[in-house]
């Protein structure tokens, strides 16, 4: 029996699994988290419930396919009980790695180990209730700095300005290494927090960087910027509401200074000039000047990178792959040995495991489907193999000391969580500890 393995159950993995199951193959999904969904479940902003529940339903439909098998609570990695070699020893005809981008980009700044300094993904995992992050300290203080100007930075600003329980936020400053015309957030996302931006303060910041941007032919005058990126501010009647949200452009963090308790107290930032490149884009270059900002919390939202501990060979830009046939400068779907440049037969990547931090859930879905098509094409012509069946795989995982959660277990867990939500009269409830989920499954197994 030619079975295909998928590592990771985010949108890329789940839709890859669907495609391969529809082609008639038995598909076995190995997922770090107990629940499927990846960043859809544990990254997308908590109140985007409609989007999350729509995708949850689609994931449930994938799991309901009789030839899709699921093992949650199973983390694969060189430092884990389950390694790539263990998967290989179960004789899959191919493996699609859709494990996302679990490493955080680091700037290597002095003082980075101070308390109150977090990576964005860990922070959003925590507020989305992913174990073990949900039980770790991600406390925020009065003055929060967020580095990065993408949608993730704006999600985090929204959380600390509007939704975090017990928040004491007085101000949030979003720090961008380049100028105001190069912000990466979507119009829809900034609308959730725009009301916290002071028109005078933003105008003063635009004036501060105006001349440096003009050298690259960028007009960052306030009326133009308000029209393009901060629509509410263009309305003469607009009045900002506290807490305060401000922006600091042309600035890169250069050092973190802690107080006597070891918590961040000040952030040193290097001032940048903008330099126009031959292709018309710009780069930020430090101009030798520095300033200091008083902050007690710092969150880096500068993107994720591939985790080398997964055990896939690493290339210069993440997991080593061929090049994309359609976009020759981008990573392709086939994993290669970087030393020889030759393909590793039957190993494919999909979603953020192919291109870290790229695109929305719909893009990851499409990427999973393209990767699945490549895997199917490979498996059709691959030699016959005797992939272990579900029972044998569970036994193998248990022999490694793991406690896999199957799709039947997930249904039981869903039932318990729904019952708790009903009892508490809340739209949804989810456990934030693996032990609680495993216990709920066990109790429900005994009950039915
Ligand atoms: C903060 C944030 C907010 C976002 N908001 C939106 C939004 O509003 N709308 C939108 O469309 N998109 C949003 N996105 C983007 C979207 O979530 C991603 O495009 C998508 O989830 C990427 O899918 P993926 O399957 O490649 O990876 P992921 O979703 O990261 O899934 C990876 C899966 O691999 C598993 N895994 C990881 N390591 C291992 C391992 N070692 N062994 C086994 N399994 C492993 C994980 O448990 C997870 O299930 C957001 C992303 C972030 C970070």
Description:
The protein has 448 residues and is of the alpha/beta class. The protein has two domains: 3-102 and 305-405, NAD(P)-binding Rossmann-like Domain (Rossmann fold, 3-Layer(aba) Sandwich), CATH 3.40.50.720; 106-302, FAD/NAD(P)-binding domain, CATH 3.50.50. It is 33% helix and 22% strand. It has 13 helices and 19 strands. It has helices at 11-22, 39-42, 49-64, 84-88, 120-127, 151-163, 187-190, 199-214, 222-229, 361-381, 390-399, 407-424, 434-447; strands spanning 3-7, 26-30, 68-71, 94-97, 103-104, 117-119, 143-147, 171-175, 244-248, 251-258, 264-276, 282-294, 297-300, 304-305, 314-315, 318-319, 321-323, 331-336, 343-349. A seven-stranded mixed β-sheet has the order 3-2-1-4-19-18-17. A five-stranded parallel β-sheet has the order 6-13-7-8-9. Strands 10-11-12 form a three-stranded antiparallel β-sheet, with no helix packed on it. Helix 1 runs parallel beside helix 3 and helix 1 (11-22) packs parallel to helix 10 (361-381). The chain is globular, with a radius of gyration of 24 Å. 43% of the residues are buried. The model has no long low-confidence stretch (mean pLDDT 96). Flavin-adenine dinucleotide is lined by residues 7-13, 30-33, 38-40, 43-45, 48, 75-77, 98-100, 102, 121, 124, 152, 155, 310, 351-353, 359-362, 364. Flavin-adenine dinucleotide (FAD) is lined by residues 7-13, 30-33, 38-40, 43-45, 48, 75-77, 98-100, 102, 121, 124, 152, 155, 310, 351-353, 359-362, 364.
């Amino acid at each position: 029996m030619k079975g295909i393995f998928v590592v990771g159950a985010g949108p890329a993995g789940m839709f890859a699994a669907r495609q391969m199951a529809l082609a008639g193959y038995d598909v076995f999904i190995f997922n770090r988290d107990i629940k499927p969904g990846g960043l859809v479940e544990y990254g997308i902003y908590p109140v985007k419930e409609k989007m999350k529940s729509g995708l949850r339903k689609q994931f449930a439909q994938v799991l309901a396919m009789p030839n899709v098998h699921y093992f949650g609570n199973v983390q694969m990695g060189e430092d884990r009980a389950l390694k790539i070699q263990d998967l290989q020893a179960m004789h899959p005809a191919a493996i699609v790695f859709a494990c996302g981008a679990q490493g955080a980009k680091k700037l290597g700044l002095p003082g980075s180990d101070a308390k109150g300094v977090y990576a964005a993904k860990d922070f959003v995992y925590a507020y989305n209730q992913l174990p073990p992050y949900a039980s770790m300290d991600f406390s925020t203080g009065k003055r929060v700095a967020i580095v990065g100007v993408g949608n993730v930075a704006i999600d985090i600003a929204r959380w600390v300005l509007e939704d975090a329980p017990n928040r004491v936020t007085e101000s949030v400053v979003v720090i961008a290494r380049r100028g105001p015309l190069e912000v990466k957030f979507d119009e829809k996302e900034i609308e959730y927090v725009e009301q916290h931006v002071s028109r005078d303060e933003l105008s003063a910041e635009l004036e501060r960087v105006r001349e440096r941007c003009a050298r690259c032919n960028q007009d960052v005058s306030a009326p133009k910027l308000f029209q393009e990126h901060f629509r509410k501010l263009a309305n003469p009647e607009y009045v900002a509401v506290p807490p305060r949200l401000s922006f600091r452009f042309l600035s890169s963090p250069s050092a973190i200074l802690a107080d006597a308790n070891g918590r961040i107290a000040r952030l040193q930032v290097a001032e940048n000039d903008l330099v126009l490149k031959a292709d018309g884009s710009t780069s930020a270059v430090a101009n030798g000047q520095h300033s200091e900002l008083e902050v007690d919390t710092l969150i880096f939202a500068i993107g994720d990178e591939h985790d080398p501990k997964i055990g896939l060979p690493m290339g210069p830009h993440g997991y080593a792959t061929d090049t994309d046939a359609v976009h020759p400068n981008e990573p392709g779907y086939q994993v290669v040995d970087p030393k020889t440049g030759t393909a590793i037969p039957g190993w494919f990547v999909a979603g953020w495991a192919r291109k870290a931090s790229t695109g929305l859930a719909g893009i990851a879905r499409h990427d999973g489907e393209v990767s699945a098509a490549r895997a199917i094409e490979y498996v059709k012509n691959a030699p016959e193999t005797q992939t272990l069946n579900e029972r044998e795989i569970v036994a193998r995982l248990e022999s490694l000391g793991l406690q896999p959660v199957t799709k039947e277990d997930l249904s039981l867990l869903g039932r318990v969580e729904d019952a708790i939500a009903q009892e508490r009269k809340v739209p949804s409830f989810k456990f934030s500890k693996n032990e609680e989920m495993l216990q709920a499954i066990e109790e429900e197994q005994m009950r039915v």
